[in-house]
Amino acid sequence: MAEQIQPTFLSELRRGVWTENPVFRQILGTCPTLAVSNTIVNGVAIGLATSFVLICSSAIVSLIRKIVPNQVRIAAFTVIIATFVTVADQFLKAMFPPISAQLGPFVPLIVVNCIILGRCEAFASKNPLIPSLIDAIVMGLGFTATVCTLGFVRELLGSGTFFGMRVLGDWYSPWVVMILPAGAFLSLGIGLGIINYIVSKKQA
């Protein structure tokens, strides 16, 4: 019988950030990606909040996977996710009120983020704790990297700033459209096009 090769953390990281990237490859979590990626600060905040909820929820789901009746598993997963979403939301409101105000309802809406419920149902509910944690970490990193990348591009082109600091001189005329909803769709579309082009070239 062929020996099974155990995946390394680097291979798992590559899976979450590239081969199975939640946004660019699976087209999941596009609502917060489009809505709050107008600055890199918002990207970091929503990425970390989503990763926190994903990691904690996956851990709990993995631990209780054998005792939750199959008929109520989705309802149970939703309650678990909602609990950690509330923790993340209250933490942001208490510690970072300006960021919480900018993110608006998109932190509470993490509870219906298909990335989190999808990983809990497809992976954590079927695997032990450590693999579930690794899966949640790499998927969270993949989502965070994507939304931060879009935030960087949109903030730089739309405002000429990086983390709120002016980096492009007075010679630069900001593309205001990049910080508007149209800029979100444009940035995501270009990103998807680039990723698909690279993948097709590698396959060819």
TrEMBL record:
Predominant localisation class: membrane
Q: Where are the transmembrane segments?
A: 40-62, 74-92, 98-117, 129-152, 172-199
Which InterPro entries does the record associate with it?
A: NqrDE/RnfAE, RnfE
Database matches in Pfam families: Rnf-Nqr
Its annotated compartments are: Cell membrane; Endomembrane system
EC main group = translocase
Q: Name one GO cellular component term.
A: plasma membrane
Query: What Gene Ontology terms for biological process does this UniProt record contain?
Result: electron transport chain
In short, the EC number is 7.-.-.-
Membrane as a keyword of this entry, yes or no, is yes
Role according to the record: Part of a membrane-bound complex that couples electron transfer with translocation of ions across the membrane.
Q: How does it assemble?
A: The complex is composed of six subunits: RnfA, RnfB, RnfC, RnfD, RnfE and RnfG.
Q: What is this protein called?
A: Ion-translocating oxidoreductase complex subunit E
Question: What is the scientific name of the source organism?
Answer: Candidatus Moduliflexus flocculans
